[in-house]
Amino acid sequence: MTGKFLKRGAIFDTIKSEERMNAVQKRAGKTRHHVDVVSCGCPDENCGAFHILRSERPLPSIEEAEQTLLVTRQQRKSARK
Questions:
Q1: Separation CA 1–CA 48 (nearest Å)
Q2: Entry pTM
Q3: 73, 79, 80, 24: which is closest to 52 by C-alpha?
Q4: pLDDT at 79 > cutoff 80
Q5: pLDDT in tens, 18-31
Q6: Which of 24, 54, 58, 81 could bond 34 through an S-S bridge, CB–CB 3.0 to 4.6 Å?
Q7: What is the domain partition of the chain in residue ranges?
């Protein structure tokens, strides 16, 4: 079963578009940024979505992400007690 508003081909196009955006970022070698999915809003079921690179919001480094994960886990454990 495909999506509620998009046909199967449009969903594949959207996924491939995101993969292309991520590949472009990796090849550029710059700091990686968050990518947002934006649908065009037209009523066509075959029209997918496009992606926007959010340059004001870089992804955290691996060390920063691990540190954030540890803090979150500690907060969840303390909330359970």
A1: 16
A2: 0.57
A3: 24
A4: yes
A5: 888 888 888 887 66
A6: 54
A7: 8-80
